[in-house]
Specification:
alpha/beta, globular, binds 6-O-alpha-D-glucopyranosyl-D-fructose
């Protein structure tokens, strides 16, 4: 292939801004804090940062309820702070990707205030207003992702408005050309400031059925499932017309050189890949969450990789995500030991990897006392385990009281072991998870086989996964033990000498012979001929 572009060869690091670094002692992370920690990300070896929303917001959904798309919430700083952060990032060669939240605004956004003020207001049609059903109830059975009906009654104007998430997050009407034009100008505002790309929130939600048909019942729904699972989201999202909208967004991105578009999409594989768009005119990277959703099993992972590679459109670039601010932490899902193997998998697969802040120090699910719960989903549907706060706790930088994150009281608690589990301590330990991430990132950047090479599974049996990455003369074998027992693996081809490039154990003790390797429990290795 030709020289890979930055978002193809690079690694994206997601920052949840409330939790990365506080600079003013209010217990909440901010832009000056992010700027101060850019050297760390450079040291670690990230190529781009994606920052979750930093815009003015009542914070009903911690920033995913935007009240002004072209400004910065005071809790995070100012536009000047943003520009300074961006300039410093660019000085270090780090790209900056912003979170664009186009599906809904805050109910405090001036557009919605106008829209709600009267049925005749010019902005009425900027949102999705419907008359009641004949019985006076909600217009149809569409649910909110955070529980309950997706329709909110507005007494003064006698209609319902639709909200796929909180009632404080009314959905915009993307069928309205004026909405589209306004939102494209938002993109231009940030692109003009030098932003390198966007991660687009719930991009598959933008267009809803024009007849507002009821969603069908989900035959697999169980009573202890969250509300949203009761119906299949057939008519409320992933409508065919959405692709024309994304193509328009992409045209705006392409008005500027070297920018990129990521789409957040939770859909089955065959639907997901349609978001590359016809002739690749859609998202550059439709986020691939299969590693998050898959069982931790060699054959399943192999099948997932094979099916994904086969489903990609010609020229479509793959990507892999291991965690984000909506999902349980990887170390929680598969355990601390296997989280090291997962790091090796993520950073040796073909395609752009996205890391979630804190996973590099092995943060696990941090328990949140009931009186400190923030997540509105947890508050709406308590006890189901849907709460996202445990994956959003502050980054741990040092063994100090505020973990180097804050001089005040952190908005969410630290992990109980923060005095050992922090960047300062783990940087000094050549065997730590942090050291492993840094070694993997370094290797990925320096080896053509990893950044741009081909992928081929050699074996997927029981607890072991063996694959090859290959580019010209550069050949690497990745052997992963997804289990807790030792495993002997046959190496491919004629017996020949092999050299250990990296073990997840970060030592040299792996037993390698000309025709086989002995993997220790929970060990992954990268080998090269020679
Ligand atoms: O439907 C889901 C998975 O099948 C949900 O996980 C949901 O679609 C997803 O969480 C959407 O997330 C994004 O939009 C939300 C916001 O709360 C999340 O933080 C954001 O990542 C609303 O803006």
């Amino acid at each position: 292939m030709s020289e890979p572009l930055w978002w193809q060869s690079g690694v994206v690091y997601q920052i949840y801004p409330r939790s990365f670094q506080d600079s003013d002692g209010d217990g909440i992370g901010d832009l000056a804090g992010i700027r101060a920690r850019l050297d760390y990300l450079h040291w670690l070896g990230a190529d781009a940062i994606w920052i979750s929303p930093i815009y003015p917001s009542p914070m009903a959904d911690t920033g995913y309820d935007v009240a002004d798309y072209c400004a910065i919430d005071p809790v995070f700083g100012s536009l000047d702070d943003f520009d300074a952060m961006l300039a410093r990032a660019h000085d270090l060669g780090l790209r900056v990707i912003l979170d664009f939240v186009p599906n809904h605004t805050s109910d405090q956004h001036p557009w919605f205030r106008e829209s709600r003020s009267s049925r005749h207001n010019p902005k009425r049609d900027w949102y999705i207003w419907r008359d009641p059903a004949p019985d006076g109830g909600a217009p149809n059975n569409w649910r909110s992702n955070f529980g309950g009906s997706g329709w909110q009654w507005d007494e003064p104007t006698g209609q319902y408005y639709y909200h796929a998430f909180l009632k404080e997050q009314p959905d915009l009407n993307w069928r309205n050309p004026a909405v589209r034009a306004a939102m494209y100008d938002v993109l231009r505002f940030w692109l003009g400031r030098g932003v390198d790309g966007f991660r687009v929130d719930v991009i598959w939600h933008l267009i809803k059925d024009d007849e507002f048909r009821d969603n069908p019942a989900n035959p697999d729904y169980r009573p202890d499932d969250p509300d949203i699972r009761e119906f299949l989201q057939v008519w409320s999202c992933d409508r065919p017309e959405v692709h024309a909208v994304i193509a328009e967004m992409r045209e705006v991105i392409d008005e500027y050189a070297d920018r990129m578009l990521i789409g957040e999409i939770y859909l089955p594989l065959e639907r997901l890949v349609t978001y590359y768009g016809e002739n690749l005119a859609g998202a550059h990277l439709p986020f691939n969450f299969q590693l998050i959703e898959s069982d931790w099993n060699a054959r399943r992972i192999h099948r997932m990789i094979r099916e994904y590679e086969a489903a990609l459109p010609a020229g479509g670039w793959p990507n892999w995500v291991l965690g984000n601010h909506d999902q349980p932490r990887i170390a929680r899902r598969i355990g601390a030991d296997q989280a090291r193997v997962a790091a090796m998998l993520l950073l040796t697969l073909r395609g752009t990897p996205t890391l979630y802040y804190g996973d590099e120090i092995g943060l696990e699910r941090v328990p949140i006392p009931p009186d400190r719960v923030h997540d509105p989903w947890e508050k709406n549907e308590p006890g189901l385990g849907v709460g996202r706060d445990p994956s959003r706790t502050p980054m741990q930088w040092e063994a100090a009281d505020g973990a180097g994150f804050t001089t005040g009281r952190p908005w969410l608690p630290f992990s109980g072991d923060h005095r050992e589990r922090n960047v300062a301590v783990m940087r000094q330990d050549p065997g730590s998870m942090l050291s492993l991430y840094r070694r993997l990132l370094d290797l990925r950047r320096s080896r053509a086989a990893l950044t741009a090479g081909s992928y081929r599974t050699l074996e997927a049996e029981g607890h072991t996964l063996l694959f090859e990455r290959h580019d010209g003369d550069d050949e690497l074998i990745v052997a992963l033990n997804l289990g807790r027992e030792p495993h002997r693996l046959a190496l491919p081809g004629e017996p020949r000498p092999w050299k250990l490039v990296l073990s997840t154990h970060l030592d040299e003790a792996t037993r390698i012979e000309r025709h086989q390797v002995d993997l220790r429990p929970n060990e992954g290795v990268i080998l090269q001929p020679g």
